[in-house]
Amino acid sequence: MLQFSAVSKRYASGLLAVDGVELSVAPGEFVSIVGESGCGKSTLLRIASGLEAPTEGGVLWNGKRITTPHSEIGMVFQEPRLMPWLTIRENIAFGIRALPASERKSRVDRALERVGLTNFAAAWPRELSGGMAQRASLARALVERPSVLLLDEPFSALDALTRADLQDHLADLWSEDRPTVVLVTHDIEEALFLSDRVLVMRGRPGQIRATVRCDLPRPRDRGAISFATLKQKLLAELHRSIHDKEGGGAPSNNLKKVVGYV
Amino acid sequence: MSSAERRLDTGQPGPILSGPSATARARSGGWSWLLGLILPLALALGYEAAVRFGWSNGRLLPPPSRIIGTFVSLAASGELARHIAATVGRVALGFVLGVTAGTVLGALTGTFALPRRLLDPSFQALRSIPSIAWVPIFILWFGIFELSKVLLIAVGVFFPIYLALSAAILNLDRKLIEVGRIFRLSQGAMIWRVLLPATLPAYFVALRTGLGLGWMFVVAAEFMGASEGLGFLLTDGQMTGNAPEILASILAFALLGKLTDWGIVLVSNRVLRWQDSLRPQR
To answer: Which domain covers residue A125, as residue numbers?
Structure first.
């Protein structure tokens, strides 16, 4: 169980990036956090990864407070962040040095196969396209077999076709061994396509404003009417959360920004 | 952001296997470097002919055949080997000293803020002093023998190494460091597995620059008054009005400089092959 307990983060500049976030993610649950740029969603994820410390509250993993990166919690960043001096195989094995060589090899082989990069095991990162590099980055996180996978806008830098392809891929990978996933994204459709639950976050201060459950059967169809209906519901929820805050005025620029990605 | 990463961000659908330079090289069949030889060869042959036909007396500017002849006779007598050994010995010792000091201090000021604030301004100030300006004071301090020469070369080698390493560590991609943190690398592993490989490209470039400066400074050092060495051969040629000897030692410098630089390039191509954009297609 991954539990965010009154998590707050105030930067030295005085900005309250995250304000008292309460959230429980059940084992095997796929949760997405959507919100506009700068709303604190990435900060929240970085606190859960142990890369950043909260100023108040904390994130608990199975009841223990996360203070530093944890072997059971994997992270994928917006950029692939592969080491350019290591081959794809070596990059994927980057985090499992401590394992015996044979175990390491079989895990990396399996990971390469799962992300469809077997033929690129010996390639250098510069030889890969953006989508392939991000799949390698995903494999690097998966190979450690984390119970929790934190994804920080992992597909936002990719073109639309590659992005859809990787979303399908992630859905498959998740169905196979059901890790707990927290995905941060500004793409509402991506969140609905992948998640059991979508949280809407708003900035200044960074708070979770709304939750939409997403019980559509998997694998999901982006073109289905039920999918469109759910998207409407999430958009309405977005509207409501913003209007609650601003006393029923006209939609703000921030809303337009979020809606613009749909 | 490194060039490798920038290419990853292009989001192209297919693998990027060859850059434009790879195709250019393939088209020219690997012989294009010969084109660069045409001009110097033409000039050399032209001048050789001019002297043969008596259009120039060739006393102050000897024709290529006389330079090569002097070079060969110096080599045959063992003179050249003795001078080269002296010069190479000084450069090697100075290079090792300069690289060691530059690496240690560059790593220190690149990594920690306090040494950087303490030392870097002084090094930046010292860097702007022209090399030859050190010669008189180095002779006063360290005498006219080997110590002052080796130290002068070490000073020349030190700065490019120091500056490049310090800057490379300072500008290190924090995003890669975070990957190291996510996988809970120890401080030693972080240095060995992230910091070192990430700074190697800049370091190798600095080694080449440093070596080039080492060759430059050895001439200045040997002008201080040496009894052997290629720099001595230069001054000796000037004193005795022996132009072929001067040009033969210049030729020796050129060959040695090119040869040692090539050595570093060979090692760096091997170590940095992940960076090489001319990898053959799979």
So the answer is: 82-145
For tokens 């890969």, the residue is: A128
| Per-state percent for chain B, helix, strand, coil, to nearest 5 | 80, 0, 20
Angle (CA) B157-B161-B162 rounded to 5° is 110
Instruction: Name the token pair of A252.
Output: 């703000």
Beta carbons within 8 Å of A134's beta carbon, 6+ residues apart: A76, A80, A154, A155, A157, A158, A166
Say yes or no: domain B70-271 is CATH 1.10.10.10: no
Residues in chain A with CB shorter than 8 Å from the CB of B279 are 124, 127
> Which of A128, A145, A162 marks a domain boundary?
A145
Indicate if A198 and A244 belong to the same structural domain: yes
> What's the pLDDT at B136?
86
Residue B110 corresponds to which tokens in the numbers above?
A: 């690149």
* Contact assignment for A131 to B279 by CB distance below 8 Å: no
- How crowded is the C-beta side of A23, counted as CA atoms within 13 Å? 31
User: Using an 8 Å Cβ cutoff, are A192 and A26 in contact?
Assistant: no
Q: Report chain B's terminal Cα–Cα distance, integer Å.
A: 27
Predicted-complex ipTM score: 0.86
Where does the pLDDT of residue B265 fall: very low under 50, low under 70, confident under 90, or very high at 90 and above? very high
- Asked, for residue A77, whether it belongs to a domain, the answer is no
- Interface with chain A: mutation pick from B1, B3, B10, B179, highest number of A CBs within 10 Å: B179
**Tens of pLDDT along B202-244?**
999 999 999 999 999 999 888 877 889 999 999 999 899 888 8
pLDDT computed for residue B3 by the predictor: 44
**What would the two tokens of residue B195 be?**
């910091």
Q: Tokens for B160?
A: 């490019």
Task: Choose the closest CB to A94 out of B2, B183, B200.
Answer: B183
The rounded Cα B260 to chain-centroid distance in angstroms is 8
The answer to whether the CB atoms of A129 and B9 lie below 8 A apart is no
Classified as helix, coil or strand, A250 is coil
- Chain A segment 160-219 residues within 8 A of B by beta carbon are 161-162
Q: How many domains does chain A have?
A: 2
Tokens matching residue B100: 């060691």
Local structure of B171: helix, strand or coil: coil
Share of residues in chain B with pLDDT > 70 (%) = 87
